[in-house]
Design a protein that fits this description.
The chain is an alpha/beta fold. The protein contains eleven helices and twelve strands. It has a single domain, classed as TIM Barrel (Alpha-Beta Barrel).
C-alpha cells in the first residue's frame, strides 16, 4: 500500500505534537469565579465543590495573593449578603459585600481585572433574579435595579460588569445608565446564552440562591433551543454588550461555535459548578485522571471558539501550565 499522506508522521513525538497543535490553553484565558460573604477570618468550603470557598473579606484578600502570583488575570465576583429582602437591596447598596470586595481587590491588586456578576438572586429572600408580584417575575421593573447594581459596582472600581439575570432589555438599561453617569468605558460581558440547566446545583449552594418557589425556566433559556441563543445574543449585542457568555459550556460547544462564527465578538465559556463537581467527584474516586480531563474539557471549549474560560479549575490549571512553562 502506497500512502503518501500519513497524518501519524506529525504525531510521532511530543515535540512535533506541540509544534502543530491547533488550540492552546493559556493562563491569560482564565477568569476565576470567587464568592465573598460577611464576617471575619472565615473561609467556608462549598461541600459539593472541593477547593471552592466562600470568603470573608479579610480571607478574600489572602486568596487573591495566590490568584495574582499564579498569573490569573481576572476574577468574577459573587456576593452573599448579610441579609436578604424582596427587592434585593444588598445588590445595589453602596457598601454591599461585592462593592466592598471590589474596593479591597483594587486597593491591594490594582492590576487584577475585576468583573462583577450583576443579578439579584443572591440578594432576594425569594431567590429569583427579578422583582415578584403575585408569583410572577417582573421584567421591566427589575431593569432599573439591575442598572443601579451595575452602576454601584462601577463606582466601587469594577473593571467590567456581567449581567446574568436574563431579563429582556437589561443590557440596554445598564449601558444607558453607565454612559449617563460617566462610565462609558466600562465593558459589559453579557450572559446572553444562559440556559436553564441542571449543571448549576452546586453554585446555588455556594451563592445561597436557590429559588424558594418554582424555577428559572421562564427567564433562562430552554436547553434544546440553539436558534433562541442566537436571538438573545443578537439582542444583547444590539443593546451594547461587548463580550458574550455561553453558560454552561461542556454540553453547549455547538452554541459556543455558532456564537463565535456568527457574531465575531469575544466569547467566554462558563465551565459551571456542576461540570466542576463531576470531575472532582470522579477524580476523588480514582476513576479519572483529573488534570488530563480538565485540560481536555477546557481545550474543547477553546476549539469550539471560546476566547475566555470562566472556570473553578483556574487555580489548578494555572499551576499546571506554570509547571509546564506554558504561560
Amino acid at each position: 500500500m502506497d500512502l503518501k499522506r500519513r497524518p501519524r508522521r506529525l504525531r510521532a513525538s511530543e515535540t512535533i505534537r506541540k509544534m502543530v497543535r491547533e488550540n492552546h490553553l493559556r493562563i491569560d484565558d482564565l477568569i476565576y469565579p470567587m464568592f465573598v460573604m460577611p464576617g471575619e477570618k472565615t473561609r467556608v468550603e462549598v461541600s459539593a465543590m472541593p477547593g471552592v470557598y466562600n470568603f470573608s473579606l479579610d480571607e478574600f484578600v489572602k486568596a487573591l495573593d495566590e490568584v495574582v502570583k499564579l498569573g490569573i488575570p481576572a476574577i468574577l465576583l459573587f456576593g452573599i449578603p448579610e441579609s436578604k429582602d424582596s427587592v434585593g437591596s444588598g445588590a445595589y447598596a453602596e457598601h454591599g459585600i461585592v462593592q466592598e470586595a471590589v474596593r479591597i481587590a483594587k486597593k491591594h491588586y490594582p492590576e487584577l481585572y475585576v468583573i462583577t456578576d450583576v443579578c439579584l438572586c443572591e440578594y432576594t429572600d425569594h431567590g429569583h433574579c427579578g422583582l415578584i408580584e403575585q408569583g410572577e417575575i417582573l421584567n421591566d421593573p427589575t431593569l432599573d435595579l439591575l442598572a443601579q447594581t451595575a452602576l454601584s459596582h462601577a463606582r466601587a472600581g469594577a473593571d467590567m460588569v456581567a449581567p446574568s439575570d436574563m431579563m429582556d432589555g437589561r443590557v440596554a438599561a445598564i449601558r444607558d445608565l453607565l454612559d449617563k453617569e460617566g462610565y462609558a468605558h466600562i465593558p459589559i460581558m453579557a450572559y446572553s446564552a444562559k440556559f436553564a440547566s441542571g449543571f448549576y446545583g452546586p453554585f446555588r449552594e455556594a451563592a445561597g440562591s436557590t429559588p424558594q418557589f418554582g424555577d428559572r425556566r421562564t427567564y433562562q433559556m430552554d436547553p434544546p433551543n440553539g436558534n433562541e441563543a442566537m436571538l438573545e445574543t443578537a439582542l444583547d449585542i444590539e443593546e451594547g454588550a461587548d463580550l458574550i457568555i455561553v453558560k454552561p459550556a461542556l454540553a453547549y460547544g455547538d452554541i459556543i461555535y455558532r456564537t463565535k462564527e456568527r457574531f465575531g465578538l469575544p466569547v467566554a465559556a462558563y465551565n459551571v459548578s456542576g461540570e466542576y463537581s463531576m470531575v472532582k467527584a470522579a477524580a476523588a474516586n480514582g476513576w479519572i485522571d483529573e488534570k488530563r480531563i480538565v485540560m481536555e474539557a477546557l481545550v474543547s471549549m477553546k476549539r469550539a471558539g471560546a476566547d475566555l474560560l470562566i472556570t473553578y479549575h483556574a487555580l489548578d490549571v494555572a499551576r499546571w501550565l506554570n509547571e509546564e512553562g506554558r504561560l
